[in-house]
Design goal:
Chain lengths: 887, 887
């Protein structure tokens, strides 16, 4: 790492610009600089750069050389510009110290407000504002916040001291405290801090600032932030947050003061209307925390000329900012005694529906081009608009209503804690997380929940913002709800719900329904169809789907898939009436018995394929022959009764049954007797499957269905395996076609999922008519990581920056990608233009799309609900590649 | 596969020559052609080529087009040349049909003798030979052999019929049967064949020939042959045997007839002396089967002028053949009524000691050069001369004596069946296989036995030849032994041994000792040292050893190793007094408890390393940090009592103990939480190990030992892992060196054992100072084959030709080799000339040596006993590469 020329940047002065600027200043730093330069009212201040924080972290939490001196210069400048000075008993300089990383991580890192107050400065503040109560309230807030963030004191200890004081003087609300009360409270607070930390509360503002900055640096690596980065796939290679140090302005100086947030368009629907909330006589934290229910932005004009003026000023600022950002903007502001101050502006988070609407409107308004609109959309969000809605015709009992914070229909069992939410979801349950209000600690729970319901908070509350961000259905501020955490009940009206009871919530209208309301598929809006049509114009790769049954095929087709990229045949083996026969086949002691059992499985498989072929009429269907090791189909040894019964039924001894289970056990099943290895040793299994596929094709073709089966051999590492199975497939196919007198256009190819298959892809391509990358297994073998076991260290590897992303979610271009490139080149050197697709999880991953596009893949295949996102992501990839080539 | 121009080759006429000739004609076909051209007495005949057999097998056992017609021409030629004709009642043409593959597979495939006999021809044979009894005996032998080999009749059924006839007429020996008896026997045989096969015994000689040839073709794929090829690593890519069709000559026409085998030098010691055995009035099979104890070649001169003449003729022929083969020759001959016929000649199989002696002698005699001698030696055989011998000073009770068929000292528990041998050996026991005589069915048992003892058979018997071939100690023809298979006892004199009792046998002198006689290391002979010295002149790669303790290090050093290539530290963890502490460390619930347990392990590890460093004074020692997943060190859940006791001892609950075992369980431990992954998450473990290594180095250096430790990080896939561990190693090393004020020259490198590590080797080489290929794991991941589970399909894959060899024994150059090449190039592009070694099993494999040499590896590392073989193999590789470059 090179030494840094400069650590601090005064707002708007000599700030870096261009795409790399965010990596230096962070999102907040950039926006404050931009607004300053636009002449918007921004409190003076400066940003300590992200690389400074990085240097601090990488050196083991030491301040880089020269930072202290540079900071002194900037503080001196601030003092001069504002005519205030640190610790002044006349007019003290007070600062906010906030985090602001390159990628927005709302609420994850720490903030210190009112910094600069001490026993002397509090008098100065009182004198300057003429408001002694305000000054001492600010001081006690500062002790509390600084104590919590910087000194490691406990928030609830401060609360206890506060409550004790209120009890002592029989005070009800915080606002009822007098100056004397506050002074007494400050003394108690300082005593607590001294006891807790072994040192008096620091009185030197410079010490406060230095430790405050370090605390914000440190908060980059607090568990919340680490977990947020992992969940949101924020690369661990970009390390460190920026820190903005800015003159305080106070929204809590009375009824001509206030604070709020606003979106230039509706973040839920995308409609072009200002959508904002504010509180008078409050600090910003009060809005986000959802403690008081805020006023709507539109109400501002009705509150008298001062507020109407502020409103008009804000509307104008919003127009300016939209013109600059060419996007919907989310802003934070504070009004101090009638004067507006801008604290933050950024492209606002939005729902999938809003994303589409806003993009279409911005194009119409001439602000952005079609390509820009496509590039700017988040493929993952697109799936939100595909989620089912409640059936309008279904009977439902509305039992309450909250704010429609994030759309969709969620049905699930209620739980009251984030941890419980994770556990229940891991057990396969659909869960609704019910909370008074959510905090950053609830993130993991929200990720796993089907929906979120909160009692307090507005549309800008933590719950609302985060739920919209992750596309989770949410109803917030439902005051009709009463939670009792002790006996884990939710009371709505006269109904009492226990943990585990079912509720349904509608994020579109905020309604809460009793029990489980049935859902239906949505009609796609015109906007969605328009975006998809544009995406289809640009993309170079086709989109297929991974589907094993006609219903999934039909769903994927509705979403625009162009074929089945992976049809796993083993799922069909597990159905109840089949698994017994499958086991019989595996337990067979002779070729004859096995063949007989296989002949009974054939009609099942054939009818499965018929259904799939009909659903995919006219589109190719790539069917993978049996993949998992046979032991996966056998019962567990513990199922003694079942084994005894089944053994009797199929005429073998219990001992033989058990010994077969034992003998098929594997130490490393991932690397075991599976895939083509089964086909080589038990060709009769593959023959049955091919026969079922071809007979199904013949049946549907005679119905007039256009059937394009592709038969795929899994887990191979050698051309010789391919040659053997190709011969088998061709022979059986010919037998079936000859017998029926029908010609079926079929292909025979292979899954490329082992490093060796990539390395000898030229040899394999002599026989294989197409390739499909199985990047899940290819990643497992290339990295030597079992997906089932990797969870023990992959998260730590991500946090340590060893893995920039989870390679099972996003293609590892350096390693796995190198093998894929080799395979494509070698394969096509022998069979020019051969079809090469990808059917691993990473096929549906937007972050892998540019790489796959450059690789020249023919298609990506993903689960049905990821198809629209893949259509968009592949279009974005194609546009990016085109733009790169132009350069 | 191209069409074949030609299927048959008349002996010596237009035969292909050069290195590829064997692939066409097979070893036997070549030798018969060569001898014919030399003017040696070879019965006329021709060879059907190996590719013909291959075409037959690959087309599903169909004769290639035109073979039948070509065969007719060749038979007509034979009839003309010999003045005999097929089925003649005057002088019938009789043929032998024998297998003969490119690589010698003695006794594994089928043979048919006396072919051409039928009800008419038998009369012709009688007339021509004037010996009716001989003719009918030949006919009944033919029915028996043809019935067994071609028609699928059972050998023991024929025996039953024969015995019934002998009982009926109270006949003792076979030779007591009259012509009338034989005629009656032939009728019974034919009845049995007709009943068994549903058709009369074929009378048409052409049918006999065609089916006979097919049967020999088929015998290529009999289970014996398949298993032999697998054990001897004969590539499954070379398919098919040649078939020699040759005029019969009879060694059983009376006392002026006979048959034998001879070696031009002693195959056991290598001494230049003719070493041969023969039987009068017998067929070749009788010698090999060991049914009658044969006469020594030297006796021939004492048997009258005819035999003395034959002996002189043979001595001359042997000289000629040695001159041609420039090697010790093994030959088969038959004398028919005083006339010598040569049936086979080939380079003879020999012991390791003989191999060395013969090579040295041939150089001295000017027949071959030093390079030729080195190239011709079998590295695997070299280890034979390293095996311990019985301690000359030890008391031993000689209880019997047999023939010294294959040298060495073997001590073990006796078993009487090949299967038992395999089972006991698999259970880790040392076993001596005791048999009346061995057959090809005993091969698997012989592979696993420490030694072989047979009651019957000479030095050319199956047991002797095979045991010498595989370097197994053998004493054969020990007539003093009496086996009772029913109660599984071996009686020698008045001693009775049960299965499982211990015996010791000396293959050097043929003695059998009671119980377990202690053994001592051999002194290497001058010859061995000479060969090794020459090998060391040529080789370009250094030889290291895989050793975890001072004793193994010392042994390897004696064998000439130049360092430790792999010292596995985990083996040290399993020792009795340590494993409890290791478990305590794993079960620790906090960093502190874990660190405390680690601090108790440190002295153990340190003293291990001290011992190893002392043993390797002056040579580098490459130590791998902890590799296996932690669960491998924990007890099994079933060990309830142990767990309860140990839990109590270390102060945790039984439930916690069990839940840790459960939580550490992995689905695919090969791809699990192991190697560097442990080092990243629990750096304290690596720190302890590095500290132990460096402290040990400091201790031995102060003693004057030259210590060159190399610290190796296992299982990594990323440069970031390497950077982290390098920092750790460097930091701890510095701490230790600073504390002791001593400088230790150490290096820090990595194992390259995952495909991704190869793919990003350039990035890794930025930090790693050396590479060592862990080709076991690299092969597992590149192929997606778990070594533990692959046994289910690898043998079948080899038999099917999908895997030419076991990739865990011999480097897969196409796949794994490609990755290795990449890694070497990328690694050295960043760190020119960096040391790159190999420590996987394949490092000691002679068949991989040329590839590893071309790769430019710095060293190969193998187990101590493979070191001399590796010295030779790497020299051979260097010579081959040199020769290739000259071309």
């Amino acid at each position: 790492m090179a030494t840094l020329d400069k650590y601090c940047y005064y707002f708007g002065e000599g700030n870096p610009s261009g795409p790399g600027a965010k990596l230096v200043l962070g999102g907040k730093g950039i926006s404050l600089g931009v607004m300053t330069n636009m002449g918007l009212p921004v409190p003076p201040g400066f940003t300590i750069s992200c690389p400074t924080c990085q240097a601090y972290i990488l050196s083991g939490n030491k301040w880089p050389k020269g930072l202290e001196e540079e900071l002194d210069t900037y503080i001196a400048r601030l003092e001069k510009d504002l005519g205030k000075s640190f610790g002044s008993t006349e007019d003290p300089l007070l600062l906010s110290v906030r985090s602001g990383a390159a990628v927005s991580m709302p609420g994850m890192m720490d903030t210190v407000l009112n910094l600069g107050l001490n026993d002397a400065a509090v008098a100065g503040l009182a004198k300057k504002t003429g408001n002694e109560r305000f000054a001492f309230d600010a001081y006690r807030r500062f002790i509390q916040m600084y104590g919590d963030v910087v000194l490691g004191c406990e928030h609830h200890d401060f609360e206890k001291i506060l409550n004790a004081l209120k009890a002592k003087y029989s005070i009800k609300g915080d606002t009822d405290m007098t100056v004397e009360h506050l002074k007494e409270l400050i003394i108690s607070y300082k005593e607590y801090v001294a006891k807790k930390t072994g040192a008096p509360f620091p009185q030197d503002p410079k010490t406060q600032l230095a430790t405050g900055i370090s605390a914000v640096f440190d908060s980059w690596n607090n568990p919340r932030a680490i977990s947020y980065r992992r969940i949101n796939k924020i690369s661990a290679e970009v390390i460190g947050t920026g820190v903005t140090v800015m003159a305080m302005c106070f929204g809590n100086m009375g009824e001509t003061s206030g604070t709020g947030v606003a979106f230039t368009r509706n973040a839920s629907t995308g409609i072009k209307e200002i959508y904002g909330e504010f509180l008078t006589n409050a600090q910003g934290e009060d809005v986000v925390a959802g403690i008081r229910t805020p006023l709507q932005f539109s109400q501002m004009t009705t509150m008298g000329p001062m507020w109407a003026g502020i409103s008009a000023q804000l509307v104008k600022i919003m127009e300016t900012l939209e013109g600059y950002y060419k996007d919907m903007v989310d802003l934070e502001f504070t009004i101090e005694e009638g004067k507006l101050w801008m604290l933050q502006a950024r492209a606002g988070k939005r729902t999938g529906a809003a994303m589409i609407q806003i993009a279409l409107d911005l194009i119409k308004e001439g602000l952005i081009t079609k390509e820009e609109a496509l590039l700017r959309m988040d493929p993952a969000k697109l799936s939100e608009v595909l989620f089912p809605m409640f059936d309008k015709k279904a009977a439902k009992t509305v039992i309450g209503k909250g704010l429609n914070a994030s759309p969709g229909a969620a049905v699930g069992q209620i739980v009251f804690h984030s941890d419980a939410c994770c556990e229940w979801a891991a057990a396969g349950k659909k869960v609704i997380l019910v909370r008074e209000e959510t905090t950053p600690e609830d993130i993991e729970g929200m990720v796993t929940a089907a929906g979120v319901l909160t009692v307090r908070g507005g549309l800008s509350s933590h719950a609302a913002v985060v739920a919209r961000g992750m596309g989770r259905t949410a109803v917030v501020g439902a005051g009709c709800c009463h939670i009792n955490m002790d006996n884990k009940t939710l009371t709505i009206g006269d109904r009492v719900y226990q943990e585990g009871d079912y509720l349904s919530i509608d994020g579109g209208n905020g309604e809460i329904y009793d029990g489980q309301v049935p859902t239906v598929d949505v009609e796609f809006g015109e906007g969605f169809n328009q975006i998809m049509a544009w995406a289809d114009e640009y993309r170079t790769m086709k989109i297929r789907t991974n589907a094993d049954n006609p219903a999934d095929c039909a769903a994927a087709r509705r979403f625009g898939c162009e074929g089945v990229g992976l049809c796993r045949t083993e799922h069909m083996f597990f159905e109840k009436e089949r698994i017994g026969v499958v086991r019989e086949m595996i337990l067979a002691e002779s070729f004859e018995v096995r063949s007989e059992a296989l002949s009974r499985l054939l009609p099942f498989q054939q009818s499965d394929f018929e259904g799939i072929f009909r659903a995919m009429d006219g589109l190719p269907v790539n069917i993978r022959l049996l993949d998992p090791p046979l032991h996966e189909f056998l019962p567990h040894l513990e199922e003694v009764d079942y084994i005894k019964t089944h053994a009797k039924q199929i005429g073998i001894t219990y001992e033989k049954y058990v010994s077969t289970i034992r003998s098929l056990h594997e130490s490393n099943p991932m690397l075991g007797f599976r895939g083509v290895r089964l086909g080589v040793l038990y060709p009769e299994i593959s023959e049955m499957q091919v026969r079922a596929i071809m007979q199904a094709a013949v049946v549907v073709q005679t119905e007039g269905v256009v059937c394009l089966p592709e038969i795929m051999i899994p887990v191979l590492f050698s051309d010789k395996e391919m040659a053997r199975l190709k011969e088998l497939v061709t022979r059986i196919a010919k037998e079936v076609m000859d017998a029926e007198g029908v010609v079926v256009k079929f292909k025979c190819g292979t899954m490329i999922e082992l490093p060796r298959a990539c390395l000898v892809a030229d040899q394999i391509a002599e026989h294989a008519e197409y390739f499909s990358f199985g990047t899940n297994d290819l990643t497992q073998t290339t990295f030597g990581i079992s997906r089932d076991d990797g969870s023990k260290f992959i998260p730590a590897y991500q946090e340590n920056g060893i893995l920039p992303t989870d390679p099972f979610a996003t293609i590892d271009q350096d390693g796995v990608g190198q093998l894929m490139k080799l395979a494509v080149e070698k394969g096509r050197s022998v069979r020019p233009g051969m079809s090469v697709g990808i059917c691993g999880e990473q096929g549906g991953d937007p972050d892998s799309a540019v790489f796959l596009c450059k690789l020249g893949l023919s298609y990506v295949s993903c689960s049905p609900f990821r198809v629209p996102g893949a259509r968009l992501a592949t279009a974005q990839a194609a546009i990016k590649v085109m733009q790169e080539e132009k350069k």
